[in-house]
Amino acid sequence: MGTVIxxxxxxxxxxxxxxxxxHLAVESAEDCLxxxxxxxxxxxxxxxxxxxxxxxxxEPALAALIQQDVGANPEEPHENGHGTFSFDVANGSCGLLxxxxxxxxxxxxxxxxxxxxxxxxADPGHGMSERFPFAAAGASxxxxxSDDDRGLxxxxxxxxxxxxxxxxxxxxxVDHRNVLRFHESSSVDQKFADAASxxxxxCLRDASxxxxxxxxxxxxxxxxxxxxxxxVHLGVSPERITMAEDERxxxxxxxxAFHRAAAAVGAPGLILIVAAGAGVTAGAALYRL
Length: 289
What we know:
Peroxisomal Thiolase, Chain A, domain 1, six-stranded mixed beta sheet, globular
């Protein structure tokens, strides 16, 4: 039993959307709904896991704006009527896995029947960032509950706290405007791999499995040096680890990699999902197609 991903939607940054995380999120959500054959009003829960957004917007929650733009019951719920609950989560490149874990809890309790996890990132533009490193991209996952063997297993987390020394993003005043800046250490990929491998070890050990029992490994962020270091830790070739094709993808990269791996493996394959990010934080979970 577990949460199953019924459809994956995506959106790439074009001229009109390259500075709008909101537009990318809405576009990917609408694409996801088309693939699933669902209407927006059927969404019970909408979670946004994106980080970098229009004009460094902090409030309101971007999830509420996405909900309104896709038409997921944006009005006040009527008595005994259907509404949509939406909110943001912020956990960097681990955000999508975090959102899936939260959605899994809601679905497992039968409080909801349909959840959508949305994520997007875009350069805020207008001089509000310095050397923005990520591609403009969005992704959405439509999730329901399955009572058979399919779906998401327990998520395992590992923290190797470094006070933001490995990777950090901060917003501060420069010439009377908020500017987004990034810092990255030379050891960031190794630290990501250290944390990720520890999360994987616990995940596989509790499932009484080895890495050879897994049909595909999906990992984020899509950084070549992290991929190589993680492969060493797991005792596999780097080619066994599927990542997003665009190395500049951020929070949407896990959805892209999962979609590729699921298409290649097919049911009833077993996918190991691995995410690592600033903190250093890493998570791992098994997913049965």
